């Protein structure tokens, strides 16, 4: 329950520093590779070849978006603030996995949203 601020606070910080499209894309794309890593380390579930290829493609896309944010090729400036924005987007994406875990434990959407700030 205390992990939910990991999702919402970094998301708002990332939006201050880089383009919203980049923030959303990075945040959403963190889920599949993270789920495979959790499955591998927690349950010894080895991903098949196609899952690995998809995750590599997702990670390459994140790298491309990070470079675009860092160089300032979008609507906002680049530099160290963009780097902080990318890191905040990644952290916000990990919080999405925590939110999903609470939903699987029977929490309602309202209960998950109610506990996003502490």
What brief labels describe this structure?
single chain; 118 residues; mainly alpha; flat
Task: Please explain how this structure is put together.
The protein is mainly alpha-helical. It has one domain. Helix content is 76%, strand content 0%. It is built from six helices and no strands. Helix 1 packs antiparallel against helix 5 (80-104), helix 2 (20-29) packs antiparallel against helix 4 and helix 2 (20-29) crosses helix 5 (80-104). The longest helix has 25 residues, at 80-104. The N and C termini lie close together (10 Å).
Quickly count the helices: 6
As a whole number of angstroms, the C-alpha radius of gyration is 15 Å
Content of β-strand: under 5%
**Strand/helix succession:** HHHHHH
Structural category is mainly alpha
Mean pLDDT over all positions:
79
The biggest sheet amounts to:
none
Spans where pLDDT lies below 50 across 5 or more residues = none
Number of domains: 1
Name the helicity range: over 70%
In angstroms, what separates the terminal alpha carbons? 10 Å
Overall geometry comes to flat
Quantity of strands, as a count: 0
């Amino acid at each position: 329950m205390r992990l939910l601020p990991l999702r919402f606070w970094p998301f708002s910080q990332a939006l201050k520093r880089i383009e919203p499209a980049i923030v959303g894309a990075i945040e959403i794309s963190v889920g599949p590779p993270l789920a495979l890593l959790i499955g591998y380390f927690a349950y010894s579930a080895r991903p098949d070849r196609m899952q690995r290829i998809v995750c590599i493609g997702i990670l390459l896309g994140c790298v491309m978006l990070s470079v675009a944010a860092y160089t300032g090729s979008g609507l906002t400036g680049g530099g160290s603030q963009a780097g902080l924005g990318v890191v905040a987007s990644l952290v916000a994406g990990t919080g999405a996995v925590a939110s999903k875990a609470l939903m699987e434990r029977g929490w309602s959407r309202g209960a998950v949203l109610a506990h996003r700030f502490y």
